Amino acid sequence: MARMTESTFLSSDGKTQLYYRVYLPEGEPVGIVQLVHGIAEHIARYDAFASFLSDNGYIVAGHDQLGHGKSSINESTLGFFSEKDGWEKAVQDIHSLHNILAERFPGKPYILFGHSMGSFLVRTYLIQYRSGLDGAVISGTGQQSKALVTGGKLMSALEVRRHGPTYKSDLLNNMAFGSYTKKLDNVRTKVDWLSRDASVVDRYVEDPLSGFVPSAGLLHDMMEGIDYISKPKNIARMSKDLPVLFFSGDCDPVGEQGKGVSRAYKAFRKAGMKNVSMKLYKGGRHEMLNEINKDEVYQDILRWLDGISGR
């Protein structure tokens, strides 16, 4: 049985204590997996997956990002990164936890795993930090068009200018997520695009730390980050030998039903990445870790991780 411990570390904003979890396996660990969660959620939602990996020999850790989960100071900071350089601070926080874990458990294969917004942060990390990793898993990602990113940056910048960066903009939230259920049948909630498992959707809806409206500042930070990782000159800076796994559902609207995931995969290959693979799950939506076929997904990821760790 995995043993879970909790602690905090100081964010790169210099003032916020970020909550994090570490899942420790019995016996000698085979590697480390650091999880980076998505927007409007928190690391506790990954408990089942983290426990599974830990039961299979991996140290698993992840933190609640700035403005999320137990790292949010109060309701006003929920869904907000920082007044300035929010995206960069979030990336630096990932690096801080990486350093904590690498120092505590030296010599272990180290894999970074990012989902949704976390996938965009991990892709930024791979550009900026080209050592200290043995692999990366990119879940529920996309590769948005230049026009869409430019429009998103402009609209979010206008909302920040009008109302301030902490403003919870229903306009931006609807622009970002409002169309995600359009291609689904028998829609019950606004977040049915997350999973075909109704119990997962219901728990998300009922969770006060999930599904909130992000701040205009955070959405602008994210659009800036997506713009950064979409530039070929930046993609080309990644370590060419790093193994990378893309996976998603082929009905995930974030990845444009697989098309955006394929574009991201092809961009990595075009940049000269030598060991990149991709899997799209038929009928799967945004959260493949919480899908009706999650057991299959867990096993596929474990098999890939074992290949990296040499087990």
Folded structure, characterized:
With about 300 residues, this protein is an alpha/beta fold. The chain has a single domain, classed as Rossmann fold, CATH 3.40.50.1820. The protein has 10 helices and 8 strands. An 8-stranded mixed beta sheet has the order 1-2-4-3-5-6-7-8, with helices on both faces. Strand 7, helix 9 (about 260-270) and strand 8 (about 275-280) form a beta-alpha-beta unit. Helix 2 (about 85-105) crosses helix 3 (about 115-130). The radius of gyration is 18 Å and the shape is globular. It starts with a strand and ends with a helix. The mean pLDDT is about 95.
Q: How does the SSE layout of this entry go?
A:
Elements: E1 3-10, E2 17-24, E3 31-36, H1 47-55, E4 58-63, H2 86-104, E5 110-115, H3 117-128, E6 135-139, H4 146-163, H5 170-177, H6 198-206, H7 216-230, H8 232-235, E7 244-249, H9 259-270, E8 276-281, H10 294-309
Parallel strand pairs: 3-4, 3-5, 5-6, 6-7, 7-8
Antiparallel strand pairs: 1-2, 2-4
Helix pairs in contact: 2-3, 3-7, 4-7
Instruction: Estimate the helix proportion, in percent.
Output: 25-40%
The total of helices stands at 10
CATH architecture descriptor name: 3-Layer(aba) Sandwich
Which secondary-structure class do the elements indicate?
alpha/beta
Low-pLDDT sequence parts = none
